[in-house]
What we know:
Elements: H1 2-15, E1 24-29, E2 35-39, H2 45-48, H3 52-62, E3 75-84, H4 85-88, H5 95-106, E4 117-118, H6 122-130, E5 136-144
Antiparallel strand pairs: 1-2, 3-5, 4-5
Helix pairs in contact: 1-3
Amino acid sequence: MDEEIASAINRALFRQQAPAHIRIMNARRNGKGAITAITHQNAIAEMAMRYRVIISTAAKTVDKGVVEVEENETWERLKIHAVPLVRYMGNGTDGLQKMGQQFEAENKGVVIPTQVRWLATPRTNMERRQNGEITASSVVIVEREARWHRM
């Protein structure tokens, strides 16, 4: 059925003379039952959302359970270097959880839905710290871009 939804959407977009790059390349149903679709490589979801009504109507012809079409979240991967190990690694530091909370508190609208992670393994960082090789390391933060709605 997922291939049929992508096909129905693409036919509808073609009939409405949407630019050729505004097409669905792949549609899948995830574990929660939501249908996710990937746009053509030369289009972003924001472009496809200009055709939201056409996409929604076409999807409903194949699956009556489709309720709404919306743009997916944008996630960004940030690498932060020179993170002091003494502050964020070891007993009593609250670790990287504290770093994530601080980052959210200091950056309005930023949500960090996953755990902040060391770029190297914690074991490697700890061994290199104990050997006196390093005092800081790098982390990766995956953050969900804030959505702003106009009123």
